[in-house]
């Protein structure tokens, strides 16, 4: 009897998933649409993933000119922050440090149509499953963000929200860290409108 084909539906497993936080730096503070909300959501993802003990990678694009990661992102004392000039986060310093069991990446940051998109496409080419956290990515121009999300979805990325991703990682209310992470989920979030129909749905579709 032939073995059944296992369908890939983008389920997350915390033991095989890493968090990528892309280029949330001082110079972008006044130019990126909904920057405070993007950083706030990314900070939630960082704290949740640290509690679950997942690998986290943070990059800075040309920090000499664009400044360092904004402090609001959170405690990076145990995270290696990697500077780069390449737009994609898939530089050798990141990829060589990625544990071999990792096959999925949660992706947050800026800009959606540049560094985030190029990171996602590079990861897909390397056979990673990529989950773009739509309430944690933005660009200077909302239109660039909209088409970038459409492009990434068409290429094979999963578009999801921060809360959906975190709950998918926990999977069960009996998870030993559920109550601690639940407190993060329940914190009031900054209203950006990014998850409203007019704020993000590419091609008129759903997430």
From TrEMBL:
The record's section on Pfam families has: Isochorismatase
Tell me which domain of life the UniProt entry assigns to the organism this sequence originates from.
Eukaryota
The family database entries (Gene3D superfamilies) matched by this protein are listed as: Isochorismatase-like
Q: What sequence ranges are listed for the domain Isochorismatase-like?
A: 17-163
Family of this protein = Belongs to the isochorismatase family.
> What protein name is recorded for this chain?
Isochorismatase domain-containing protein
- Native organism: Macrostomum lignano
Q: What is the lineage of its organism?
A: Eukaryota, Metazoa, Spiralia, Lophotrochozoa, Platyhelminthes
């Amino acid at each position: 009897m032939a073995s059944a084909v296992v369908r890939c539906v983008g389920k997350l497993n915390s033991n095989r998933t890493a968090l990528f936080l892309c280029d949330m730096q001082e110079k972008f503070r006044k130019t990126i649409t909904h920057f405070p909300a993007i950083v706030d959501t990314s900070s939630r993802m960082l704290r949740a993933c640290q509690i679950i003990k997942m690998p986290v990678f943070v990059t800075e694009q040309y920090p000499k000119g664009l400044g360092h990661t904004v402090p609001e992102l959170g405690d990076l004392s145990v995270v290696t922050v990697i500077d780069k000039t390449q737009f994609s986060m898939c530089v050798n310093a990141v990829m060589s440090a990625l544990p071999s069991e990792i096959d999925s990446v949660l992706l947050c940051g800026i800009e959606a149509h540049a560094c985030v998109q190029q990171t996602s496409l590079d990861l897909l080419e390397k056979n990673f499953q990529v989950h773009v956290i739509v309430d944690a990515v933005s660009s200077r121009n909302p239109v660039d963000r909209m088409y970038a999300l459409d492009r990434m979805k068409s290429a094979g990325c999963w578009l999801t929200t921060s809360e959906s991703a975190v709950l998918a990682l926990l999977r069960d209310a009996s998870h030993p860290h559920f109550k601690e992470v639940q407190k993060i989920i329940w914190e009031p979030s900054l209203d950006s409108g990014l998850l409203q129909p007019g704020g993000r749905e590419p091609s008129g579709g759903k997430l």
